[in-house]
Amino acid sequence: MSYSPRDFWDRRLSEQFDLRGTGETGLSLAYNRACYRLRLEVLARALRAAGLDPRGRRVLDVGCGTGFFTAFYLERGAQVTGVDIAPTSIERLRARFPQASFVLADVSEAAPAGDFDLVNAFDVLYHIVDDARWEAAVRRLGEAVTPGGTLLVTDTFAKLGAIAEHNRMRPLAEYRRVLEPLGFTLGRVWPTHVLLNRELGAFRFLNRAPDLLLALDRTLLALGLGTDDKVSKLLVAKRRG
Questions:
Q1: What are phi and psi of 80, to 5 degrees?
Q2: 30 dihedral zone (left: phi>0; alpha: psi -120 to 50; beta)
Q3: E strand intervals along the chain
Q4: Residue 44 in contact with residue 52, Cβ under 8 Å?
Q5: How far apart are CA 198 and CA 195, in angstroms?
Q6: What is the pTM of this model?
Q7: What is the rounded CA–CA span in Å between residue 19 and residue 226?
Q8: DSSP per-residue string spanning 187-223
Q9: Residue 153 · residue 61 · CB < 8 Å
């Protein structure tokens, strides 16, 4: 069966509407909570370094899933619009977060109308496996960023190609090719993990100790590790005013 993004993600979220549905389905909820906790720490660090305070900002949360990043931005006083390809996500998040707006859409076909100060596309774009649709999505999201605004994107930014049916990684040069003509300056990339969210081979038994992996990853990231090609990274791209 060929990969249909809408069906794939709606099925996953219908079966597990928690962090396993958007993360590692075969591992525990505790493991996925550790992974996402580290993501938040990296995101908060990147926002501080860029001088970005979400309060009062118009934020587009792309691939809002179970609302993890939606909640992060709402708690910080942002005006949030969430967009997702899965009807289950939109239906449940509209009930959970009535103070936010949610749009059912495929961003490779259309992005929500309006200009946004911050577009958050965390663990989303590498799930678009068709290159033409990926490029269309990156361009649409870039165009949704208001001048002076910021686009946040995660990928390995290495030329790994397809690593799973629903994952296709692309190099930083591909993002630069699409975003720079739109007026973006590509800034720092922040590794989002080292051991978490990674195949550990003979050491995979450590997945049963997510708190330990979280502590190790915090230390390893502080030491500057996590730069190899197989590690996901957060790119901060600023659109010129």
A1: -110, 135
A2: alpha
A3: 58-62, 79-84, 101-104, 116-121, 145-155, 161-164, 167-169, 184-191, 233-239
A4: no
A5: 6
A6: 0.96
A7: 23
A8: EEEEE--SSTTS--GGGGGGGG-HHHHHHHHHHHHHT
A9: no
**CA–CA dist 75, 54 (Å, integer):** 9
Residue 26 identity (one-letter amino acid): G
Q: Rounded to 5 degrees, what are φ and ψ at 51?
A: 70, 30
Q: Can you tell me whether residue 79 is helix, strand or coil?
A: strand
Each residue's pLDDT tens digit in the chain (241 positions)? 588 999 999 999 999 999 999 999 999 999 999 999 999 999 999 999 999 999 999 999 999 999 999 999 999 999 999 999 999 999 999 999 999 999 999 999 998 988 999 999 999 999 999 999 999 999 999 999 999 999 999 999 998 767 778 899 999 999 999 999 999 999 999 999 999 999 999 999 999 999 999 999 999 999 999 999 999 999 999 999 8
140 DSSP assignment: H
Distance CA(119)–CA(138), nearest Å, equals: 11
- Cα separation, 212 vs 59, in Å, equals 33
